[in-house]
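Whether sequence alone determines local backbone shape is best considered at the level of individual chains. In the encoding step, the backbone of a single protein was reduced to a row of integers, each denoting a local shape. For completeness, the protein is quoted in full, as a sequence line and a line of structure tokens.
***
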Amino acid sequence: MTQDSNLFLSVGKQVKDEYGRILGNITSLAVNPNGRIRSVYIEQGNSSLIKHPVESLKVDGSEVILLSEIKMETANLCDVIPLLWRKDQALKELVDKKKISPEVYEDLHNNFDGALNQLKSEAQALIERLNKETAKCTQEIKELNYALVHLEIEHEIGKIDEQSYQTALSTVQECLKRVNIEKSDLEAMKNKLSNILLGETTPQTETKEETAKKSTAQKTPSPSLPEPPVVVYVKELGESGI
């Protein structure tokens, strides 16, 4: 069954995010004349419909999952930026080997350079968004921990019965687990994107000549130092020592 067929059957079903939070229900679909789904409308509990591109949804068995937009954007930039760097480096090698003319090199290099600068600007803006989302997670973790403490206090003094306490405790702990996972994901995405912008892709952009030089340097043994001389001390023995 195709993804489109699954989505047609998913109208009216709940939609969750990647961390298990319930976001709402699929209410309608935007379909092309050829029958392909373009977008999905999700009712988010406050009677408002939010339109999402079909690429951001995944049908996993009976569940419909809305993929993280910021995670998809980060993954795309982490793929495209190093690819453009490698292409620009390959272009430089071609002109050095005189396989293309300097004029063609300059034209294509300027195109690559302009595209890279645009992507870097997008990456910087995305890092700022990641920072803001991480800060939201940090604040949510703080609030959930306070909620947990207050729950424990009220239970301890007998204001909350055991069954209600266990139900509430399980809910708060599950929320803490989800938001901690989300925060870890956001931090990992930010670090990966930051490292790419800092140029930590040396193994991918390293030229063949540089690789060969490093390989030769590793194989060439360093000159060995002469062994230190051995000094033997001999004690003369007189007749009294016999």
